[in-house]
Amino acid sequence: MTKCDLMKTGKDTVVTLTYTLRENNDKGEIVESVNADNPAVFLIGAGNLLEKFEGNLQGLEKGDAFSFALTSEEGYGEVMEEAVVDVPLRAFEVEGEVDQEMVQLGNYLPMRDQEGNLMHGKIIEVGPEFVTMDFNHPMAGKNLHFSGEIVDVRDASQEEIDHGHVHGAGGHHH
Ligand code: ZN
After folding, report:
1. 10-30: per-residue pLDDT in tens?
2. How far is the CA of 161 from the centre of ligand 1 (A)?
């Protein structure tokens, strides 16, 4: 008799899943929700995801439900004071004028640090000379709760493993 096992999630598999991310626990406020109409597709084992998130999905099969919590430390880390930065208003000038549409409270803007790394910051204060931006991850300092269902699991292709990302449906097209 042939033994026929369903494929399990693990290193170098591509997993399609739905999930709901809540703050703190399974009763917390919904932060993000991904349903079966537009599921998330991840390459496992490529360092793209939170380590503990991947760990909790390990060994699951198509149709399996999951529900787990991550501490802020396992998630996006603690809120760091030094990630709140005053940026001179000059930095937002376009042809000598401050771009007022860009400089709005609550706006997320892509900025480059001294090393040229791209970071996203949220404007939390607009002063006469400086704009205060918070570069902490929006979920920093928060415990996370994920629940959802595995929609599909398949082996990653060698090309996907080499590139470190998913190709085809839900992934890159090239
Ligand atoms: Zn690729």
Report:
1. 999 999 999 999 999 999 999
2. 9
